[in-house]
Amino acid sequence: MTHGRYPIYKGLQKPLIYRGFKGKFIYWGIGSLIGGLAIGGLIGAITNLFLGGFATLALMGAGLAYTFMKQGDGLHDKTRHRGAFIHPAHLSISYETEPDLSGELSSAIKNRQTDENREKDNL
């Protein structure tokens, strides 16, 4: 019994694009339209119909422009640092030389000699 191979559709591997908006920015654009319509309608109901219409168009346009600008930065918000960064190396690891204990050793030897001399004097 031989097993046949069947092609598996793995998607387009590209973000969804609608009228220039990609991925999550589609929702941002829809939110800009709905938010501009709601706030502009509220302004129109409270003050003047013409002022509300102008506010609706201005808020929708500003929201869509902001969405386009944010989309230019990329799908994921990353801070982009311009320039070269040099990290100084503060390493003090030394494998070839041993620490200088000559001062400590000489004082230990002198203390031992004085202890031996005291023992001889006591005998």
TrEMBL record:
| Compositionally biased spans, kind Basic and acidic residues | 112-123
Which parts of this chain are annotated as the region Disordered? 98-123
The alphabetical list of record keywords is: Membrane, Transmembrane, Transmembrane helix
Top-level taxon in the UniProt lineage: Bacteria
Segments crossing the lipid bilayer: 25-43, 49-69
Q: What is this protein called?
A: DUF4133 domain-containing protein
